[in-house]
Design brief:
mainly alpha, globular, 151 residues, 6 helices
């Protein structure tokens, strides 16, 4: 709906994507689990600093999880998502922090997941898709795309 493009994927494409999707979830698990274990140990020994670290790491992991939906829909590798998050840490942490804060509010946390998926998709359409569009890699192409919105 945001881009106006229609998808032509059927059940066969979905079934062929299952091994790739499971591999991608495994990659996220391998990325997150060691960091959570180290963070758990830090929280055990340094309570106040550990709580702040836990919040920011949760924000980072929320951002990774929800931004993965549009990246995966466009079949952009997970390593590219992590690289883009490292290149734009303020954007990643602010998105993840908003999700983390809303997840703490009772009843609002029921709406967080669909809203975060929609927000990540909008973020992809507005800011992040430009990083993976070959047509926009040419010099000056980004400035023309900004003008296209108003014409």
């Amino acid at each position: 709906l945001l881009t106006g493009n229609t998808l032509h994927n059927g059940w066969r494409d979905f079934m062929q994507d299952i091994p790739r999707l499971l591999g991608r979830e495994w990659q996220k698990l391998v990325y997150v689990m060691p960091r959570l274990l180290v963070l758990f140990v830090l929280c055990w020994f340094i309570p106040v600093v550990g709580a702040l670290l836990w919040f920011f790491c949760s924000a980072w992991f929320y951002s990774l999880q929800y931004l993965d939906y549009p990246y995966d829909n466009h079949k952009v590798p997970l390593i590219a998502l992590r690289q883009n998050m490292r290149q734009q840490p303020v954007l990643s942490l602010s998105f993840g922090s908003a999700v983390a804060l809303c997840s703490m509010v009772p009843l609002l946390n029921l709406l967080v997941m669909p809203a975060a998926v929609c927000g990540a998709t909008a973020l992809w359409c507005e800011r992040l898709s430009e990083l993976h569009d070959p047509a926009l890699q040419a010099p000056g192409a980004r400035s023309y795309r900004k003008l296209d919105r108003y014409c």
